[in-house]
Amino acid sequence: MSKRKSFIAFLFLLLCSTLLLSGCTIKVPKLFPKVIPISNLPAEALFVDKDPIYNQTVTLIQSAQTSIYIEQAEFDDPRLIQLLLTKSHSGIDVRILLDQWQKVNRSTLDQLKSQDVSVQFYPAQKGQVNHTKYLIIDQNRAFIYGPPWTASGLQAHDLAVELSGKAAWKVASQFSKDWLFTTTLPLPVPKTSSLPEDNIVLAVNANVKQQLTDQITTSTKSIWIEIPEVTDPDLIQALTDAAEKGRDIRLITDRAVTSKIPVTIEKLKTKGVSIRYFPSNQTLSMHMAIFDNKLFLLTSSDWTHYSFIANHEFSITIPSPVASAKLGEIFKQDWEKSTE
Fold this sequence. Notes:
This protein has two domains: 44-183, Endonuclease, Chain A (2-Layer Sandwich); 201-337, 2-Layer Sandwich (Endonuclease, Chain A), CATH 3.30.870.10. The chain is α/β, with parallel strands linked by helices and 340 residues long. Helices cover 41% and strands 20% of the residues. Helix 8 (233-244) links the parallel strand 9 and strand 10. The chain contains twelve helices and 14 strands. It is globular, with a radius of gyration of 24 Å.
C-alpha cells in the first residue's frame, strides 16, 4: 500500500474513532428502498356494482359448509335473509352483527331471532355508527363490502373484494373480537392459520386513517381517489403536500356532498388536485384509493374526522399490481364520464 493510501486510511480510522468516542452516529444513505411485499390478489377478486356483488354474495352463502359470519351496517334484503335462514336450519353456524342505530335492522333482527339465528346489535355508543361490512364463509373466505345489504345500497356504484388467503382468517379473527365484545362469548376461530400469506393489511378505527396517511405520504407517482366525501384535515393536508411534490392526484367525488365544503374543495384545487364529479344519475358509494397503480385501499366509509375518531370502521390495504391495474381501468372509465 502506498504512503498516500496509508495516510488516507489512517485519517478515516481516526475520524470514525473520534465519532464513536463522542457518541455521534454516522447516517449511511439507504442504497436500497424498503421492499413492499406484493399481494397475489387477482383482478377476478374485484366485484363492481349490484349484479356482480349480489350474485357473488349469494354464491358464497350457498357454498358455506360450517359457518357464516356477517357484520353489516344495514341489512334488509329479503332473499339474503331467506338464504341465511335456510343455512341456519341446515346446521350451519350463522352469526350476525348489525348496527343498532339503523331502523332497517330492527325488523331484520326480529325476523332472524324468531328463527333462532344468532344475531345481535353491535353495542355502539349513541352517535357511533358501525360501518363495518363483510361476509366470512367457513373462516377461509371473506367478502369485504362497500355497499350495505339494502336495495338502495346495492344500487349504488360500489366495490367489493373477495379474500381467500390469510387475510380471510384475519377478518374472521376481527369478527370474533367484535362478537366477544358484543356477547362476551368467544368464537372457535384458531389463533393461527395455515392459509397462504397474501400480504393484505387489515385496519380498524383510527388505524384506517394511519393506513391512508402512510400510503399518501409514500406514494411516488399517482393517487387516484373515488369517494363521496373527504374532509379530514390531516388527510387534506397530506394530499395537498403530495400534489405540491408533483404527484398525479385525482379525486372523483359527489357534487351534492362537496357543495357543502367549498373551502376544502378550493384548497385542493389550488394545490393541484384534479377534481371531477360523478354523474348524478347513480349514487357514488365507492370508498377507495389507488396508489401508484400498484396498491389500493378500500375503506368502510367516507374520510371524515368523525368517522376516524368515533365510528367503528374497517379497511383493507392490498399491494396487488394486477388488481390495482384492473381497478385503475375502472377509475379511468369513471373519470371520463365524470364532469368538472
